[in-house]
Amino acid sequence: MYKLVMFRLILLRILISALLMAVVLSSGAFRVGDVLAATAEEFTAGFFTGSDGVPVMPGMEEMPEMGMVFDKPEGRIVEGFASGLVNEKEIREFYGRTLPQLGWNVFEEGLFQREGEILSIEIIKGVENGRSILRIILAPSQ
User: Fold this and answer.
1) What is the pTM of this model?
2) Which of 10, 26, 74, 132 is deepest in the core (most CB within 10 A)?
3) Which domain of life is it from (predicted)?
């Protein structure tokens, strides 16, 4: 039953996204090339290893050698790192805008909750040659 509900929700999200894209493109506010370029950039950024859908912000690169994934009966624990020449405000805006679209609820600044999991986002500014380092921790909420 759960899988059927999730499948229907995914289909609904796809349909709504397609309709919104059609409205935006028909308004003439954006050129198709710009939209496709942004989509391709976000797609190539990918997701944190083991996170099942926590995106790596465009302009940042995951540092997989520093991350860790641990599965346990109560849920998984994922720690991931990424670095890039982006500032703290841009990082917070990206995740504040993107994560709710992926089903995460904003709990407080830098803290999100979804389906029994808590996601923490920490930003270390200008440590690696002026690059910001992003640290995510994904853990069970209980």
Assistant:
1) 0.66
2) 132
3) Bacteria
